[in-house]
Structure formats: structure tokens, C-alpha cells
Amino acid sequence: MPLFPPDKRTDKRQKRKLLARRILPPLLLILFVAVGFQLLSDTGLIHHYVLPSPSQVARSLVQDFPVMGDHLVHTLRVASLGFLLSALTGAVSALLMDRFKLLSDTVYPLVVISQTIPTLVITPVIVLIFGYGDWARLFVVILVCFFPVTVSLMQGLRSVDPDLLRMMETMGASRMATLRHVKIPASLPAFFAGIRISSTYCVMAAVLAEWAGGGEGIGIYMLRTKRSFRYDAMFASILWIVVLSLVFYLLAVLLEYFALPWRDKTEIRTSQELPS
């Protein structure tokens, strides 16, 4: 342990170094794959009518954005609302199952079973029940995304140090006080781990729900471009799905950063101890 803690300037430098270590390698790998794929396409080893080149996909991203933008907004709205509702549903479910053992024994197996049904199979049934609208899409997003939040938070609540719980009981604290001051703060890292996992699923779930219905959405746009053999536009829509999923993930990371600021300092300290 250092005798004098590092100053703020050193902390900022370590943060930039840690961020570069996480971002640069995957970016360089993606750039290398894109350049290699473009060279193979230019030399004719890969035909553009089979797989479009990165330059064709980039051109479609720009030219088709006025049409694609409306579909993106619709998918983003459904994914955002579904993600928020799934986080709320998962948190409430985990708290209730942690509080009531009978409820946990009864509901938890059903929660697990709900994730064993393939989404492509259950989505048309959900659309038939709720109709060809946003309600069906919201339900699919919630069904896909609430499970990681529920399981992670419940595991965090049940992994609290028993000595802390016994101390609160000795001090005469109520169940609500123990939950507020001990169990919830101790389980927040696990909760945000589930949030990060769910954030990568919400856009995909919204797209899967769009495939089973009609209307607007980037999933509908993808199907239309596929059926018209516009593979450059289809791959452009796939890139937008990836970008939206990354945006949701980064928002979840930022939320965790502001909610748990001490974890960021722990990561910096750990990176300093690791060999470079």
C-alpha cells in the first residue's frame, strides 16, 4: 500500500490509460478485419452480390439514413421503454423473492422456465395475444431483459455478509432498515451487472418482436431490404442494431459509474497492481 495516495492528476492519467487499454485493441481488430474484407472484395475473391463490401455498407449508411432514421427512432423508443420496465420488474421481483421464501420457491422456477422457451417461437404467440402493436414488442423486451436483473439482484441480496445482518439484528434494526442500509448497498454491484447484461439484449429483443409483426422498426426495415436483395442496406441496419446495443451498454456503465463511484477507484488501483 503506497504511503501517499496518488493525486487527482495521476488518477485522471490512469483512467485514460485504462480506457485506452479497453477500447483501442477491439477498435484496431475491427479496422483490420474491415480493411482485409475490403481488399478481398476489391480483388474479386468475395463477390459483392454475395456479401457487400464495407465501402458499400458505409455508402448505404449515409444514403439510406433518411428512411432508416424513422425506423431507428421507433425501435429505440420501444427498446428504451422496455429496458426501463424490465429493470423495474426485475428489481421488484428480486426484492419480493428475497423477502418471501414461499414466493421464491414458487415463482423462481417459472422465471427460469420462461427463459428456456426460444424467443422466435414465443414471439408470434405474444403478437397474437397483444396484437400488432407496441404492446407486444414491449412485452417481448421485458420477457427477455428482466431475467438477468432478477437473478443478479437476488444473488446479490442473498450474498450479503451474514455478520452484517447479525449486527443489524443485534442493534434492533427492522427488516426495512436492514434492507435499506445493508442489503441494497451490498447488492448494487450485482444489480448493475444484470443491468449491463440486459442492456445488450433490449434492442435485439425489440428487433425480434418486429419480425413477428408489422409497422415500423429497424427489424422491419431489415426484412424489407433482405427480400429486395439489398444486402448492403441489410448489413447497414445490422450495424445500427450493434451501435444502439453498444449505446445502451455504455449508458448502463455510466449509470453504474455515477451510482458506485468507489468501484472506479478500485479498478484503477487493480490496474496499477497488474503487470503491464
Secondary-structure blueprint:
Blueprint: H1 8-42, H2 54-63, H3 65-99, H4 101-114, H5 119-130, H6 134-158, H7 162-170, H8 175-199, H9 202-211, H10 218-227, H11 231-259, H12 261-273
Helix pairs in contact: 1-12, 2-11, 3-4, 3-6, 3-8, 3-9, 3-10, 3-11, 5-6, 6-8, 6-9, 7-8, 8-11, 9-10, 9-11, 10-11, 11-12
Description:
- This protein has helices at 8-42, 54-63, 65-99, 101-114, 119-130, 134-158, 162-170, 175-199, 202-211, 218-227, 231-259, 261-273.
- The protein has 276 residues and is mainly alpha-helical.
- Helix 3 packs antiparallel against helix 8 (175-199) and helix 3 (65-99) packs across helix 11 (231-259).
- The protein is flat.
- The chain starts with 7 loop residues before the first helix and ends with a helix.
Short description:
The protein has 276 residues and is mostly helical. The protein contains twelve helices and no strands. Helices cover 82% and strands 0% of the residues.
- Level-1 CATH class name: Mainly Alpha
CATH homology superfamily: MetI-like
What class do helices, strands and sheet pairing give? mainly alpha
Look at the structure and give the mean pLDDT.
Answer: 82
CATH topology group: MetI-like fold
Low-confidence stretches: 267-276
Radius of gyration computed on alpha carbons: 23 Å
**Which architecture per CATH?**
Orthogonal Bundle
